[in-house]
Amino acid sequence: xxxxxxxxxxxxxxxxxxxxxxxxxxYAFVLPLVTADPFSMSGMxxxxxxSPPIWMDGGQATMPFGADDQGRNLITAMAYGLRTSIMVGxxxxxxxxxxxxxxxxxxxxxxxxxxxxIMRLADVQLAYPALLxxxxxxxxxxxxxxxxxxxxxxxxxxxxxxxxxFWVQYARTIRSSVMVERxxxxxxxxxxxxxxxxxxxxxxxxxxxxxxxxVIATINLGIAIITEATLSFLGxxxxxxxxxxxxxxxxxxxxxxxxEWWISxxxxxxxxxxxxxxxxxxxxxxxxFNPKIRGRT
Amino acid sequence: MIAHTTExxxxxxxxxxxxxxxxxxxxxxxxxxxxxxxxxDASIADRQDLIMRLxxxxxxxxxxxxxxxxxxxxxxxxxxxxxxxxxxMIATRLPATIELAFxxxxxxxxxxxPLGILCGVRPNGIISRGVMLVSIAGITLPNFVVxxxxxxxxxxxxxxxxxxxxxxxxxxxxxxxGLLTLSGWRAIILPAITLAAxxxxxxxxxxxxxxxxxxQSEHIRFARARGLSERRIWSTYAMRNALLPTITxxxxxxxxxxxxxxxxxxxFAWPGIGSLFLQSIQAADVPVIAIYLIFVGxxxxxxxxxxxxxxxLVDPRLKRSGA
Lengths: 297, 323
What we know:
The complex is a heterodimer.
Chain A: H1 2-8, H2 12-34, H3 74-110, H4 112-126, H5 130-145, H6 151-165, H7 167-181, H8 185-192, H9 197-233, H10 245-253, H11 262-289
Chain B: H1 2-29, H2 33-37, H3 44-54, H4 60-72, H5 86-121, H6 126-140, H7 143-157, E1 170-172, E2 175-177, H8 182-215, H9 218-225, H10 230-252, H11 254-267, H12 273-282, H13 286-314
Antiparallel strand pairs in B: 1-2
Helix pairs in contact in B: 1-4, 1-13, 5-6, 5-8, 6-8, 7-8, 7-11, 8-10, 8-11, 9-10, 10-13, 11-12, 12-13
């Protein structure tokens, strides 16, 4: 904890970012507990459709950011959307971390042919930007599972596609650290005491190679959230009947031309605030925990 | 040198073959071409005919060879969604995408390069600081948000530019161009800026870092000691060293630019290859997705290869030792 406190001393940018993230998380997870789901019948009121933000003519005090085409209060809808986006981003990062971590550990520890196969696979995947790959995986999953899929299924597909699209970076980082660690004395000592390879990998090596990967994961969280929003905005991620920042912006985009700009612009700004905060924090953590850079700035 | 070149070319071909095989497997195992391509009341004879024509009764490896052979001869298969040949589908949409990419490259060159030089030469000036601040937005703003915000401001609020499509186009031979009409030019501006946002910020930041670094180096200090003018030092001595890495890095970012072009085309309903790819994903049109994958993979791998092979020729400091 002391290290964490020290990481923020005298740095206003990261402090503001961390505070903003806490506020956004509270907003996303507390407001839905006390309000009706705007994406169920009871949560919307068609009479309030296209109600503008509070400072414009016809704005209502209960709807500070206005309402969308179905009369959903935007401040509630955005909390639901933000909650989905944060959860999808976080879970997909964990999935990428688990896949990439496992493959990286095995590649670095076993070496030889296994290592070559895993790393060539990584090379092939690196020919494609993660965003494009997530799109393709999503499309293929649709081809396999059929189009009449439920919201839950669509969300699961998005999470897994983003997770798979990002495993390479973790695998490469972990692999190179493992290749250094496996020749250390403590590994030899563990082997002498008769521990199995699996036990050595998970109990002895893994804790020593996690730090750089966790920093990458923080930075990737921002990218994962953007990827989800982009997929949903393009209509291949989370369906418009379910709230996420991307699907809210997609829905709002339909009314941009007719002048109801707030339906898309406010979710856009929320997304930007979240991503900028996560990035500032991630960059700061990276600089702080990277001994090569520390002390230079 | 030659051995290294051959090895890299061989590697690239192998990876491309691997990509093609994966793409082929997708087409071969996902979806049922018979139900996708035949009418529901097709007779058994029709089915047999199509099986023969597509070679579905042959072993997997033979079919892969046919697939490769077809691609080399311009036969990319049939779309499940529209039942058209994929080759012409791509050909009719290619001009829109290339013109968009070209326009965004122009924006990058005429906005990114001068601003990058300014930020590198005068890093502490007010304008430089402002540019660097704004460039943070260019890096963190998701591509589609840039598009939506540009539409909200310049299309809906100010009404200067259209928000979708290419405007009027002119047919020249096999090429439809939007660059010969006024509405075409107006239509391309917002998408080009959206697509260029990432590259512009990238170029500004790269050039700035490079120029700052080069500005500290021996040969620049020596040039100053010789009494050369600042203008001459920067334009002939520093720029040469700074531009090369910038162009290289930009070329290696091409994959991202392709991904962003899909998003940009989606936002602006730009009738190019990116939006074809999007529609194919929405419709789970596996053959088109597969061809697109091979197409993008090939472009990306070839550019990578060319950059890597040309680099030592352009920059004599990087001749591979012992090769």
